[in-house]
Amino acid sequence: MRTPPARRGVLRRIRRTDDSGSVLILVIGSMLVLSMLALASISVTMRSTKFARYDQDYSTSMSAAQTGIDDFISRLNRDDSYGTKVDCLNKAWQGPMSPTSNICGYTMTTLPGWAPVEPGSTSTKRGWYHYKITYTVGSDTYGVSVTGRANGRYRTVEGTIKVGTSLDYVYYTDFEDADPGNTLLAKYAPTATNPLGGAPTDECGKSGAGVAYYWHYMPLHGGIRDTDTDCQEIRFASGDVLDGEVFSNDTIWATHNDASKAKPTFKKQVWTADENCKNATGVVSTWVATCLRQAPADSVVSDADFSGKKPLYHAPLYLTDTSAGLSSKPGCKYFGAVRIRFDAPASATAPGMMTVWNRTSVNNGVAPVPTPSLAGVMPSCGTLAALESSSGASIPVPDGMVVYAADSGATSRPCYAGELRGPGGSTLPSGNYTGTAPSGSTSTMLADKVMLSPSKRCNLGNIYVEGVLKGALTLAAAQSIMVTGDIVMAGGTLAGTDVLGLVATNSVEVLHSTVGTVESQKKCTTYSAGVCTVYSSTLWEWKSTTKSGTDTDAVALTRYKEPGAGVYTPAQGVQVAAAIQTLQHSLMVQSYDSGCFKGTLLVNGSIAQRWRGIVGVPDSGCATATKYHGYLKDYRYDVRLVSLPVPFFPKWANSVYTLRSSGEIDTPVAIKQ
Question: For residues 613 and 645, is the Cβ–Cβ distance under 8 A?
């Protein structure tokens, strides 16, 4: 049956109408989807822009904090006293603080001040910084908390800024040659052309360090030292152990024992200013070949155990020349020879005490001068009467301060027997030498050999020290410091907060008291250019040296056990727990060539010296099992020196402040604005 035409048309129109609607729906749907995608894209872009802005501000605020640290360090390096008081002109330092800590009028309610990273900038979207500073008195150590700000974002870095000192190393030497003043050495013994002995040439230090040459820089010998040099080379030997970082401006000489083949051991990093060490590679054999002395240093080739750590080059570091800068620091200033014994505290809560002897015959009748701390604490230094007495002056340790020994201006003469006093049974000097003139040509007395030295005259600023220290203290001497027994810390060598600095213009010496016969001679009545031209026929005086072959051991070192340990450490020898600086000479043992093996010299701390000092020498003729005069070395770094301040300890002459440690912390709410 056929559908009528009209019906077919209607159906056809309806069919066409359905197709058109579908397309429209598809178009509208597509536009909706595209619109949604566009909106989503815009949303993502906006969110990404926001995150990018956040990341940029976050990074900028950290950069601003670092700029604040760099700013403070640069100010310190222009003026090393800058951080000791608040700079009212530095906007970054403004902030809440105790009104007694500044003269700027800042109080605990003062709003933080901000300095722009870009000078002159006023935009809050750019970097700004604010810092808070804490200063440890006498330590050249600063704590910093620096906040960076950028477009409302804050980040804070906390750290420690310190100046470089020899406290960074267990062992430092400027020159690896023997102390030019050591007349016991064969090369430095008195001769007709060098009657006073000591280094015979300027290249070896005769006229001081300023004109001496390092082993790796000897233009007179084609660039390096050779066998015709007059300098006395000093080596590290088998059995020597250095447990801590080592630094030398010179080139180290280290050799093993031919029999045992045991090498000197360096347990931590070794640094040298010998540029040849730059050529060391990852191959161990190059470490010895480029970083240690090689023949012809007495024709003995170097060798050492570096404990797997390649030696490295470092630009030279230099000591200051004298201890004079410490003479006016807070603490006690004495005159002439001073003897000190640190007394173990009676209990854990008892204050640190020390006994001091400083007689009027050596201090020229001048009382000690106390100087208050920066906080106004006045130390007790003892009265002339107490210092003169046989029991000495018992006084509190001037914690956080300095004890200084200056020359007294009294008549220059050797100390007489027992004149320095000291604990019962160990008074110094040994012997029976007095100021009484000899009666004739055959008169003799017994004198302490070392005490006859011109450097140990009783009027000179020398310190004699031993005992158990409680507190933080630096001993400094215009001349030298003599260790007369163990020096240990009341709170323990590896724990606690007790710390000692020993700073001597000349040397730090371990006592080895030997007594010998001193003879009489005709008294000189006329000198010309320092040489006697006329002798008396009736007057007599004592010779300035002991008779050869008469020296014998006298007063022994006093041993002290570490509190709580119950034993002597080391079992045989002596312990010196201290940070040591010898500014013109060395750490050494007195009369190290006399007698046989004394044990181990254990230094728990740090050693810095201008020249190499001798603490012992091999001798196959010794009857002891260890064929050695003097001591073997055991030098251990006190890791507490990284954070514990040694009061007013001298920094390098060419030192700079650097950031030693840092880390990010949460920004204090009070800093945010």
Answer: no
Nearest CA-CA partner of 461 in 393, 389, 513, 409: 409
Neighbours of 456 (CB within 10 A): 21
Buried b (16+ CB within 10 A) or exposed e, 565-577: eeebbbeebbbbb
76-80, 346-350, 479-483, 623-627: least confidently modelled range: 623-627
Give, rounded to a whole angstrom, the gap between the first and last alpha carbons of the chain.
91
Looking at residue 194, what DSSP letter applies? S
Alpha carbon distance 367, 131 (integer Å): 45
List all residues 6 or more positions away from 643 whose beta carbon is below 8 Å from its beta carbon. 160
**What are the backbone dihedrals phi and psi of residue 564, each rounded to the nearest 5 degrees, phi first?**
90, -15
Q: Tokens 């200063």 belong to which residue?
A: 135
Which residue shows structure tokens 């030696």? 311
CB 334 within 8 A of CB 356: yes
Using alpha carbons only, what angle is made at residue 240 by residues 237 and 241, rounded to the nearest 5 degrees?
145
Q: What is the bridge-based pairing of β-strands 265-266 and 401-406?
A: unpaired
H helix or E strand, kind and range, residue 341: strand 338-343
Distance CA 638, CA 606 (A): 7
Q: Is the separation of the CB atoms in 405 and 502 below 8 Å?
A: no
Q: Give the whole-angstrom CA distance, residue 254 versus residue 239.
A: 11
Q: Which amino acid is present at 314?
A: H
- 2 — pLDDT class (breaks 50, 70, 90): very low
Cα gap 109→98, rounded to integer Å: 9
Give the model's pLDDT for residue 622.
81
